[in-house]
Amino acid sequence: MADAPAITLIEAITQALAYEMRADETVLVLGEDVGVNGGVFRATAGLQATFGAQRVLDTPLDETTIAGLTVGLASQGMKPVAEAQFDGFVYPMVDHIICHAARFRYRTRGRLTCPMVLRVPWGGGIRAPEHHSEANESIFTNVPGLRVVLPSSPARAYGLLLAAIRDPDPVIFMEPKRIYRQYKEVVPDDGEALPLDVCFVLRDGTDLTLVTWGAQVKECLEAADALAKDGISAEVIDVATLRPLDFATIAESVSKTGRCVIVHEAPKTAGFGAEIAARLAEESMFDLVAPVERVTGYDTHIPLFRLEMKYLPSVDKIVAAAKRAVAHA
Q1: What are phi and psi of 40, to 5 degrees?
Q2: What is 6-186's CATH number?
Q3: 200-327 shares the fold of 6-186
Q4: So where are the chain's domains?
Q5: Which residues, in sequence order, are CB contacts of 87 under 8 Å at separation 6+?
Q6: pTM to 2 decimals?
Q7: CATH class of 200-327
Q8: 67 and which of 93, 158, 284, 320 could share a cystine (Cβ 3.0–4.6 Å)?
Q9: Is 132 a catalytic residue?
């Protein structure tokens, strides 16, 4: 659609939800304040007025109940899209997600699936308290039976959320709230889903590979621009679906560039970047001409306010890591 408007990432979420609710009457939305108030970030603004209170459900302030209700609805033929109001609020949901949602297909030998989506406003950078600013994706990447998706732009948020809702298995859909309204893209409301389980190569390069996801995609693209001024060609990969990981795309890039810098805002220890680095050591060792670099958050809770942006990976930190990698002959 040539006349499609430019919209923000949060507006792309709303647009995808509305499209799928129009197309499929089994899709419903539930969570704290998602109905009358349209969600704390306004992701569900206007949906209750359009689709009614039986399809856009305001729930009690009880994440355990939200998760249990979502699993139950999914097991009985509905396609619920639940919202965890903030990333740090998912912990009471973990029992239902890990012990039940992720095991339905396995437990029933494929007779039942759990077609649910848990939307999680994710990550730091909005000057909020610590339970509102966590990058906890690695909790879910260790769980068989779950998909973990992290969009990085309005267009990818729209297409990946459509794919997540249509998927027969549970999807943890983590939305980088720092870029909810940071910039706009033209996103046609055409119902075209993007593929899950696929990395997106956003920029071609020959000297090193930058691997990232979520809000850090923007910093990596800016770092690639800065490196180009120094004659260093960086390929940028948006992982997008962390589990299952499209490692083949990363390996193909590293076979070309010989160097890899992994960037994420979660703490370094046991962050998902460690899994990618381990796979490179196991499967791409002879392609590497330099050690894998990681640019991450620190092994602390995210600091409040004044130090928050110091905690997050920056363009300068990414550029420095890339130059260390390139310095190896």
Answers
A1: -65, -30
A2: 3.40.50.970
A3: yes
A4: 6-186, 200-327
A5: 120, 121, 122, 123, 132, 133, 134, 135, 136, 174
A6: 0.96
A7: alpha beta
A8: 93
A9: yes
Residue 108 DSSP one-character state? T
Among residues 96, 100, 131, 132, the one annotated as catalytic is 132
Alpha helices (H) in the chain, listed in sequence order: 9-23, 47-51, 63-75, 94-99, 104-107, 138-141, 154-166, 216-229, 247-257, 272-283, 308-311, 315-327
Query: Taking the CB of residue 59, how many other CB atoms lie within 10 A of it?
Result: 18
> CA 219, CA 165: separation in Å to the nearest integer?
29
Cα-Cα-Cα-Cα dihedral sign, residues 36, 41, 47, 53? negative
* 329 residues of the chain, pLDDT tens digit each: 557 899 999 999 999 999 999 999 999 999 999 999 999 999 999 999 999 999 999 999 999 999 999 999 999 999 999 999 999 999 999 999 999 999 999 999 999 999 999 999 999 999 888 889 999 999 999 999 999 999 999 999 999 999 999 999 999 999 999 999 999 999 999 999 999 999 999 999 999 999 999 999 999 999 999 999 999 999 999 999 999 999 999 999 999 999 999 999 999 999 999 999 999 999 999 999 999 999 999 999 999 888 999 999 999 999 999 999 999 86
